[in-house]
Amino acid sequence: MACNFLPLSPNHLARYFLGAWANILIRKAGPMIVVVDDRDMVTEGYSSWFGREGITTTGFTPTDFDEWVESVPEQDIMAIEAFLIGECADQHRLPARIRERCKAPVIAVNDRPSLEHILELFQSGVDDVVRKPVHVREILARINAIRRRAGASATSGADGTQLGPIRVFSDGRDPQINGIDFPLPRRERRILEYLIANRGRRLNKVQIFSAIYGIFDSEVEENVVESHISKLRKKLRGQLGFDPIDSKRFLGYCINIE
């Protein structure tokens, strides 16, 4: 029995393998930022800069991105940390395309000093616009700010956010375990709030550091995060009888409560 196969052009094969490779990276590397830009040198540059901060990126041209976002499995696209849209002809169209599949932050990189262009980008659905040149740590801080606002709007300040027996608040109050106040130092409390706000996602040390300390606290080493999390885990284990924070070397931390 003869089987007929449609021939694939080199471009189609390249796009297929690019999308497949991106999906593998998402599953293996943890949180990822997707960069869309017409210029290979730009996507490669972001890959290098974010890589120095411990963040994995994958780059697409708009055409390749359209094909990928159409076919990527749900569990893979939901693991995306954020989308960074650079200079391309489809810059205004892509945010709506992303929103059809995912609620991750969408940030546009603006190469043009035009107020009209910036307003058009916001109208297209982006969450933020940054002007080049911009440091990747500022981009990470903006991503964290967008996620915090989204988490705050999803729950009321009075009720907080509940995950299993743990309830956290975003107004400075101590968390609660089984309805009883569970006092924590400020940094440990913020880490717990950040992990719960991002439940289901694995966060690396750089992301947690940026969320807790911001990008301007240059006198503090990122390794302090490990110390804070170690103390937090010990306290949670003592109160809950188990450790709700799962850690994987090189991938980061996530909170895991059935």
UniProtKB/TrEMBL annotation:
GO terms for molecular function: phosphorelay response regulator activity; transcription cis-regulatory region binding. The keyword Ribosomal protein does not apply. It comes from the Bacteria. One of its GO terms (cellular component) is protein-DNA complex. Residues 158-257 form the OmpR/PhoB-type domain. SMART domains: Trans_reg_C. Residues 158-257 bind DNA. PROSITE patterns: OMPR_PHOB, RESPONSE_REGULATORY. GO terms for biological process: regulation of DNA-templated transcription. Pfam families: Trans_reg_C (PF00486). Keywords: DNA-binding, Transcription, Transcription regulation. InterPro entries: CheY-like_superfamily (IPR011006), OmpR/PhoB-type_DNA-bd (IPR001867), Sig_transdc_resp-reg_C-effctor (IPR016032), Sig_transdc_resp-reg_receiver (IPR001789), WalR-like (IPR039420), WH-like_DNA-bd_sf (IPR036388). Residues 32-147 form the Response regulatory domain. This is Flagellar transcriptional regulator FtcR.
